[in-house]
Write a structure and sequence with these properties.
The chain has 480 residues and is mainly β. The protein is 12% helix and 44% strand.
């Protein structure tokens, strides 16, 4: 693992330094004059540090996620810095990715971001297709759902199937968001989009295709998703997915000094998202409230930074299908998919979607160190270390009525032994609102303050959240 990680980091550093090409890398005469007036002796130094024109990067999309497996594919990111007067802010950013993982999770995405396409407004567009043949489903209400790690571990004595805590979830997303200034650091936000879900049982025939009999998954074993459907915990009208157009609006306060890895400032937002539903899903119209607070505190110049984030998502009206309760609404879709709670975007080290409920809150605390800065060719790099602590909890739970569930099992699954129900749901001491904690260490390799390769390793405090030690996440960008 260590050799593979070092090889991967070497490839990434070499790739981003050699594949980037600069169309225009000089300051204008006016910019040189402005710099000279401020500090004539520093003109050449600042000239070399400012990026101008276009930068284009094309890389193999090679990463690793403890929940999703090894990722392979390709990505390209194009930045336009113009005359460099806004650097390290870019004028336009185009991002394209096509990749797939060894655990059958795909990313096919186009993303555009600009503060200058529409003067004085930030405009973003995202179009993504995210097929997930083995999406995690651990049950409802966090610790109220019993997680039996051995049931999915082939080496364990109580192994059932690797697909026991899985279901199929394919997601199509299209969105357009705009932000305008209200005065000072205050902004208004509005957005429109659509989420299209196709969910169901794992396609075991596809998963088993090409495998020998020893490595094939059993075809006749029900997973937790199938049991929840049979027991009517997951209702039939939410069991297969649906289409949900949405409208979004809110306000933002942003005093950060930059978008990528800010060294100081506050970012906070409060917004509402109304999702409509049609046909069999028409009862799932819902309104969600989101609030986020991020604070970046400089400790020593730009070398040491204390950063933390608090986030909240609540269902304020209507009902939400279970697969949308793991979707964390954000005003700016920086990463491919924000899933909550558990996994690389919220609680590192905790199983993806471990905490599934109608409402949740979480916090991330990071101490960010830049331990080395250097240049390769004309590109500016730094290496950082980030110890962190993540915590999350349920704020709105599912109502799991024991008597109703038992009655449904007796009617729809008469062969199930009710004495084993405690292996699935804890009705005696559910600990629904008990916080979930994890901590770890991150390694960052950044180029030009915008392209950041992130490697995070984390462990949960409670083994009910994850028993694995190798919870490694290799991503692009800081977590927040």
């Amino acid at each position: 693992m260590k050799k593979s990680l070092l090889l991967f980091l070497s490839m990434m550093i070499f790739g981003i330094s050699s594949l980037y090409s600069i169309e225009d890398n000089t300051l204008t005469v006016n910019e040189e004059q402005i710099i000279s007036k401020k500090d004539p002796s520093d003109t050449i130094k600042k000239k070399n540090k400012i990026r101008t024109g276009w930068t284009f990067g094309a890389l193999p999309s090679v990463s690793y996620d403890a929940d999703l497996g090894f990722q392979y594919g390709a990505l390209a990111n194009i930045y336009f810095f113009g005359d460099g007067s806004k650097y390290p802010e870019y004028l336009h950013s185009f991002y394209v990715e096509a990749s797939y993982t060894t655990k059958r999770y795909g990313v096919f995405r186009f993303f555009y971001d600009s503060k200058y396409l529409i003067p004085n407004h930030r405009f973003t567009v995202d179009v993504s297709y995210l097929p997930d043949a083995m999406c995690d489903f651990i049950g409802y209400n966090g610790y109220q759902s019993v997680y039996n790690a051995g049931w999915r571990d082939k080496k364990a004595d109580d192994y059932i199937t690797r697909a026991f805590y899985k279901f199929k979830r394919d997601l199509f997303r299209a969105s357009a968001d705009i932000q305008g200034n209200l005065g000072g650091n205050w902004y208004w936000n509005a957005g429109i989009g659509v989420l299209g879900y196709n969910v169901g049982s794992v396609n075991l025939a596809m998963i088993n295709k090409g495998k020998d009999s020893v490595n094939m998954l059993p075809m006749d074993v029900e997973g937790l998703y199938e049991k929840y459907v049979k027991w009517n915990i997951i209702k039939k009208d939410e069991a297969t997915g649906g289409w949900y157009p949405y409208l979004r609006g809110g306000i933002t306060y942003d005093s950060r000094d930059r978008q990528q890895n800010p060294t100081k400032g506050i970012y906070t937002d409060v917004f509402l998202t109304y999702s409509a539903a049609f046909g069999e899903q028409n009862e799932y119209n819902n309104l969600k409230l989101n609030a986020t607070f991020r604070h970046y505190v400089p400790v020593y110049k730009d070398y040491i930074n204390f950063s933390y984030r608090f986030a909240l998502q609540m269902t304020t009206a209507g009902q939400t299908p279970f697969y949308m309760n793991s979707y964390w609404n954000t005003l700016y879709i920086q990463r491919v998919l924000y899933e909550a709670l558990g996994g690389s975007n919220t609680l590192r080290g905790v199983l993806r979607n471990r905490i599934l409920a109608n409402g949740f809150a979480f916090a991330n605390v990071e101490m960010r160190f830049k331990v080395a800065k250097f240049d390769i060719k004309k590109e500016h790099f730094y290496i950082g270390l980030v110890p962190f602590l993540d915590a999350g909890m349920i704020t709105q739970s599912y109502e799991l009525n024991k008597d109703e569930i038992i009655a449904s099992i007796q009617e729809n699954d008469p062969d199930f032994d009710l004495d084993n129900l405690s292996d699935y749901i804890n009705f005696e001491k559910p600990e629904i609102f008990k916080p979930h904690f994890a901590a770890g260490l991150g390694l960052k390799v950044a180029m030009n303050d915008n392209f950041v390769l992130s490697v995070d390793w984390a462990l949960p405090f409670d083994k009910r959240d994850n028993v694995k030690m190798a919870n490694l996440y290799i991503k692009i960008g800081y977590m927040f």
